Amino acid sequence: MNRxxxxxxxGNLIAGATVAAGLPPISYAEESAAEAGRxxxxxxxxxxxxxxxxxxxxGRDFDDKSFTRVTLPxxxxxxxxxxxxEKSYEFTSVYRRRFRLxxxxxxxxxxxxxxxxxxxxxxxxxxxxxxxxxxxxTPFSFELTSHVDWDRENVLVIEVDSSERPDIPPFGYEVDYxxxxxxxREVSLRIVSPSFIENIxxxxxxVLSGHPTLDVQCFxxxxxxxxxxxxxxxxxxxxxxxxxxxxxxKALPGGAGASENLTLHLEALGDIALWDLNSPRLYRVEVxxxxxxxxxxxxxxxxxFREAKFTPQGFSINGKVIKLRxxxxxxxxxxxxxxxxxRVQRRDAVILWKNLHCNIxxxxxxxxxxxxxxxxxxxGLLVLEEIxxxxxxxxxxxxxxxxxxxxxxxxxxxxxxxxxxWGVRINESRDNHDFYTRTNALAHQLDTTRQTGGIxxxxxxxxxxxxxxxxxxxxxxxxxxHPLYLNTEFVGHTYPTKTIxxxxxxxxxxxxxxxxxxxxxxxxxxxGGIGWCxxxxxxxxxxGSGDRICYHGVTDIFREPKPAAGFYRSQxxxxxxxxxxxxxxxxxxxxxxxxxxxxVSSNCDHLKFYIAGKLAAEADPDRAQxxxxxxxxxxxxxxxxxxxWGDLRIDGYIQGKQVISRTFSGLGIDQKFTxxxxxxxxxxxxxxxxxxxxxxTDEFDAIRPFANDSIRFELTGPAELIGDNPFxxxxxxxxIWIRASEQPGKVHLTxxxxxxxxxxxxxxxxxxxxxxx
Length: 773
Fold this sequence. Notes:
Layout: E1 39-42, E2 47-50, E3 68-70, E4 92-99, E5 109-114, E6 120-125, E7 128-134, E8 140-143, E9 154-161, E10 187-192, E11 196-205, E12 213-221, E13 232-240, E14 243-251, E15 259-266, E16 283-291, E17 294-303, E18 308-311, E19 314-317, E20 320-322, E21 324-329, H1 342-355, E22 360-363, H2 370-379, E23 382-386, H3 396-413, E24 419-423, H4 433-446, E25 451-456, E26 467-471, E27 485-489, H5 503-521, E28 526-531, E29 537-538, E30 549-550, H6 563-569, E31 580-582, E32 597-602, E33 606-611, E34 614-619, E35 634-637, E36 648-654, E37 657-664, E38 672-677, E39 681-683, E40 689-697, E41 710-716, E42 719-722, E43 727-728, E44 733-740, E45 745-753, E46 757-766
Parallel strand pairs: 21-22, 21-28, 22-23, 23-24, 24-25, 25-26, 26-27, 27-28, 39-46
Antiparallel strand pairs: 1-10, 2-3, 2-4, 4-9, 5-8, 5-10, 6-7, 6-9, 11-12, 12-15, 13-14, 13-16, 16-17, 18-19, 19-20, 29-30, 31-32, 32-35, 33-34, 33-36, 36-37, 38-40, 40-44, 41-43, 41-45, 42-44, 45-46
Helix pairs in contact: 1-2, 3-4, 5-6
């Protein structure tokens, strides 16, 4: 069911890179040790921003003192968290950044690297246009060398068109998510020698043999097709912490071209620990480009040794078949859209892994922050990553950009052990043989270690990829029609649910997720399922609930759980966490016919229900409804027990031993107001940010779902509040974010509830390293 009813080279594979014209010849032997290798200079602070772009602002000597000083990541316009005009951020803005290059940069090549700018970028240096890039979700770079002023201050200017341009994926028709605008990811200057390491792809081999090896593909770029210098070599070392596990060297062939691709083989690595879901062991690959013993360039990547593949028996990691259970993720947040820094991006991975006990996430519907993927590597959360798109396929130039997106996504992320599948179709699009032959062939050409998938919504679709990845919103699900089969969306738009909905809807929302996973567990040919979706997200006016939000998540837009989140949380083994989450709030008359069914998500094997201290019911897992789940939800009949009205206590048992107890007040009174910060220490870099959750609960800490009080904040110290002030609670909860300034110090946040008083949090803003450009 539809949710709504070629390798394109660019020079040396760096967007718009120009030949290093005007570079004087370099003698590597004359480079000092301090000048050897590369220099990466983050340039995220000190930008000047204007929401109005003019030709004059492109100039080097333009007076930008009236522009707003901003730090990246930056959204071009902060908007309300719902019910705003989606066209309000669709305009062309301009960013300006002044910088000086260190003396060590002379005789080297200078690139500017953008991690993500929404949607189309035109870049100028010192008044000269250096290039354009179309695309909001993939990285791009330009070489600045021939335009650099080595003696004076340089001015970098970026004009950013944040409109939904029909010539750029995912746009062209309608898209069920908002993309917002601005330079929403980080930017840096990369200073390298005329010959440098452009990329690294480390490929573990024979990881289950007891004698794993490692092939390291090194991509080397030269300033010209015939480098004057010979005698260059590559050295690759594999590190476990600070211990060298293996090493290899190889000389570059003489008379090489402008681009070289060499593979170095490491063996006899000893006892290598595998990267697995429960023990995501990471190693470090370091590559050095040498001229004799002089370091010309160096770079490194984190990797993991693991075997991950889809088989007719399901998904296998390191030889063990596991059932995939996950959720789809949009990377947007209230007020600032996509412009959240690393700490916040990483927190989403932790929420999916720790709070929801997912073992896989799909990056719907575009490549997502490197910080998010780094966190997935570290905690053992698998990833299906896909190219930008949503149903629409554009003309040939549009398709060429999409093919290029495949290249950029894979070349950026191919070292992440968490990524197990490349999504190389436009989500829910119709078939297009020639287009999808290109995307699939390119993915296999670039990466022979991973399988491909393509998200579709109809089983009659032409199958060009390795894994048939299918959005199926019906129930029962369609039976797998290919040996390798993964469900990638379900429930979602067919049953949007808000935290303030009535008990029947909250219960049904939970049941719908549970019964899909129950069916997935019934047949090994279902590799598993990725539900739609993790978090509520902003959308266009003709989608969602009419307030610019799709309430499709198992959590709300602030990452606060709905009852269905409890089902996902309950699917872990009890030795990881004992879980007991009701799919209701305790009230006698909120159901249309009075309180009857009590649905509880738990990994216990027996529950007892007490009302006013008296045993009212007992229940075992509901095997009649969920025959195949390892940890089926419980359904207890409390229709006769409500006459005993009072506090509800649920005790959970495993093998006859009580392991958990939760109590819910029968008083109907808002009792407590709490603040729950994700972190209390931030870095004074102008961007570091953390979430603060607000909750009104009963005396037993259960959320009061109809508390809608207005919370007033006072913030003092070197930080700013991202969010409404005052903020009206939704479903008894909500969140704001605190962003550090560039000054260290103490930050004090006080939140005032109109009845329950004030709560206070202190944050420590620690000194951040200065930017050097």
